[in-house]
């Protein structure tokens, strides 16, 4: 009976908060471990979990940890509403419900042999972090590796120590830009799309993974379009109002797809037409 | 003459002039000179006469707006292969922001009076030059709009 419940995608599994880290003023990272013996979660980069604060509610949150570490589930969360606000109040030792992992993944296996380009904006770096870990772990299987990241201000840059560490590698190009700053910042200033023409990768042999606000993704794709990158090589992570996470409730319907089940990661070519429909 | 040919080559190697007619590039090179700025040096200053436009050969430049009593706001950073300073095209030919070298920077500057004189005489040259400018301006405008709308803010 208990096993049947554990396999039920609608039943949350209890996880304990091992650590809570503040990332920025409005975001934080929770590191979780299953309470059940032998628990833990194998996930693919790009997938998400439904996190349930008991008595408050449930929200979909992308997994931001290393897929090689199944024992420690990592989620980076932006405090934007009631449930995430309650999550921000959790402390080490508290228990949270987890359903998942759900959804499609970044095509890290299919991209082997290609140059890989990550384009992220704001909190959109979190869902791409597992893909970055994956590529860096199996670095020799990929060509050039480029990470382009845009944030609002220097204070809003996520995972700054890691970005610095990745930038320090000789086999990874990391470019960070901010929208606004004063002159105490010596890095790039401008939209993340401006980093694309300067990035060093083979346009004809690259897999591009894009995650961020939808407007940013549209402009990033417009910049890639015409530069030689094929539409089929571009992948985006979509965000819609996901509730059940298994394609039953229809809240996250996006044209003929359910973002929770068919996404959140889509090949751009598959949803290009849908992105032009303003009512969606 | 040797000097002009040198600039002609340098300019054609620059991203901005890559698609420009060879002859136009040769004519414009007569207005060009090399400039070099140390890190943190002021290149242009808001309100001063816009008497040049610049191609970045190597380095980085920050476009800034000064704020009385505060640190300047950086509007944008530009890098090798970029251009800046199009106030020379538009009357009253005054810079509308400051530009500062972020690190040691080498530029090609083109003298505005010389450019205006040449394109007034030679409209094909003007068309050629503006055909290079307009796409850059369009892209910058789009990027600025994206920067302005606070896309990373809470939705």
Keywords, separated by commas or semicolons:
heterodimer, A: 280 residues, alpha/beta, Elongation Factor Tu (Ef-tu), domain 3, Rossmann fold, 2 domains, seven-stranded mixed beta sheet, six-stranded antiparallel beta sheet, 7 helices, globular, B: 155 residues, alpha+beta, four-stranded antiparallel beta sheet, 4 helices, 35% helix, 30% strand
Topology:
The complex is a heterodimer of chains A (280) and B (155).
Chain A: H1 2-7, E1 13-24, E2 27-34, E3 48-53, E4 57-62, E5 73-78, H2 82-88, E6 95-102, E7 115-121, H3 125-137, E8 145-151, H4 160-167, E9 172-178, E10 181-182, E11 188-189, E12 206-211, H5 214-224, E13 234-237, E14 253-254, E15 257-258, H6 259-262, E16 265-267, H7 268-275
Parallel strand pairs in A: 7-8, 7-12, 8-9, 9-11, 12-13
Antiparallel strand pairs in A: 1-2, 1-6, 2-5, 3-4, 3-6, 13-16, 14-15
Chain B: H1 2-13, H2 22-28, E1 32-37, E2 42-44, E3 52-58, E4 60-67, E5 70-79, E6 83-84, E7 98-101, E8 105-111, H3 112-121, H4 123-148
Antiparallel strand pairs in B: 1-8, 2-7, 3-6, 3-8, 4-5, 4-7
Describe the protein in words.
- The complex is a heterodimer of chains A (about 280) and B (about 160).
- With about 280 residues, chain A is of the alpha/beta class.
- Chain A has 7 helices and 16 strands.
- The longest helix of chain B is centred in the C-terminal third of the chain and has 26 residues, at about 125-150.
- In chain B, strand 4 (about 60-65) and strand 5 (about 70-80) form a beta hairpin.
- In chain B, helix 3 packs across helix 4 (about 125-150).
- Chain B has a 4-stranded antiparallel β-sheet with strand order 1-8-3-6.
- The interface of A and B includes residues 152, 187 and 194 of A.
Q: What is the gist of this entry?
A:
With 280 residues, chain A is an alpha/beta fold.
């Amino acid at each position: 009976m208990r096993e049947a419940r554990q396999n039920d995608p609608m039943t949350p599994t209890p996880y304990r908060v091992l650590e809570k880290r503040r990332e920025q003023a409005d975001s934080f990272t929770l590191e979780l471990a299953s309470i059940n013996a032998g628990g833990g979660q194998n996930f693919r980069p790009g997938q998400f979990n439904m996190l349930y604060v008991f008595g408050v509610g449930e929200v979909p949150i992308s997994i931001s940890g290393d897929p090689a570490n199944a024992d420690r589930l990592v989620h980076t969360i932006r405090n934007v509403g009631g449930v995430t606000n309650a999550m921000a109040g959790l402390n080490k030792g508290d228990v949270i419900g987890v359903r998942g992992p759900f959804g499609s993944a970044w095509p890290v296996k299919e991209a082997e042999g290609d140059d890989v380009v990550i384009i992220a904006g704001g909190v959109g770096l979190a869902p791409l972090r597992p893909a970055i870990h994956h590529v860096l772990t199996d670095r020799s299987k990929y060509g050039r590796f480029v990470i382009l990241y845009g944030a609002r201000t220097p204070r809003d840059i996520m995972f700054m120590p890691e970005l610095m560490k990745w930038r320090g590698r000789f086999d990874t190009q990391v470019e960070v830009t901010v929208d606004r700053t004063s002159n105490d910042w010596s890095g790039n200033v401008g939209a993340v799309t401006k980093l694309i023409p300067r990035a060093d990768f083979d346009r004809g042999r690259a897999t591009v993974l894009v995650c961020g606000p939808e407007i940013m993704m549209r402009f990033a794709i417009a910049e890639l379009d015409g530069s030689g990158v094929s539409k089929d090589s571009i992948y985006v992570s979509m965000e819609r109002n996901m509730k059940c996470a298994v394609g039953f409730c229809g809240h996250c319907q996006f044209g003929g797809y359910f973002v929770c089940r068919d996404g959140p990661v889509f090949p751009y070519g598959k949803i290009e037409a849908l992105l032009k429909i303003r009512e969606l | 003459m040797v000097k002009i040919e040198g600039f002609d080559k340098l300019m054609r190697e620059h991203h901005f002039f890559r698609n420009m007619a060879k002859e136009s590039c040769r004519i414009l090179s007569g207005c060009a000179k090399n400039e070099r700025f140390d890190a943190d040096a002021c290149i242009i200053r808001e309100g001063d006469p816009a008497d040049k436009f610049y191609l970045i050969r190597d380095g980085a430049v920050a476009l800034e707006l000064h704020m009385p009593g505060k640190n300047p706001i950086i509007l944008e950073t530009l890098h090798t292969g970029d251009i800046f300073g199009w106030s020379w095209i538009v009357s009253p030919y005054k810079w509308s922001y400051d530009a500062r070298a972020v690190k040691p920077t080498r530029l090609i500057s083109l003298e505005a009076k010389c450019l205006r004189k040449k394109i007034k005489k030679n409209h094909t040259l003007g068309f050629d030059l503006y055909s290079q400018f307009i796409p850059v301006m369009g892209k910058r405008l789009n990027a600025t709009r994206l920067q302005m709308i606070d896309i990373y803010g809470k939705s």
